[in-house]
Amino acid sequence: MSDINEIEIPSRKDEIRQVTPKDPMHEIEDKSTYHAKIKKSDSGTVLGAIPLNSRSSSNSSVTSTGQSSRRVTKKTTKKKKKNACYFDTCSSAASKFIGDCNFCKGHFCSKHRLMENHACNGLTSCKEQLHQRNADKLEAEQTKAPKIQI
Length: 150
Description:
Mean pLDDT: 67
Number of helices: 2
Helix content: 10-25%
Largest sheet: 2 strands, antiparallel
Low-confidence stretches: 28-43, 54-67
C-alpha cells in the first residue's frame, strides 16, 4: 500500500467492522432509559439503568467516561432563608422563642405565630385535643358524693 487514501477491504463479511465509535448519547435520544455497564473493582460487572430526559438538555450536564455514561440534572429549587417566616406572603424574620409551631413544624414571626393566623394544618387536631383535655379536667373536679336532700 503505497497510497495513503487506499483502504484494504476485507474479503469476508465477518471481518468487516465499524471503525468510527458511536456516541452513546446520540443513539439513545428517543429512549427513556440508558443501560450503562459499570465495572466495580474485582467484583464483576454491574448493569445499571440511568433515566434520561431529552427535553431538559439545557439544564443538565453530560459526562461520559470509559464504560459508563451519566447524566446529571441540576435542580433549581427556591430555598427560604433559615430565619424567615414560613407564612407565604410574609418576609419578616421568624421569632426564635415563640415562633415555633408544634403541629406543622414551621417557624413564624410574631404576627403569624398563632395557629389561626398561619392557617395551621394541625388546627383541627389541636382543638380536639384541647376539648378532650378540658372534659377530663372537669370530670376530675366534679364532686363524687351524693347530694344531701333536705
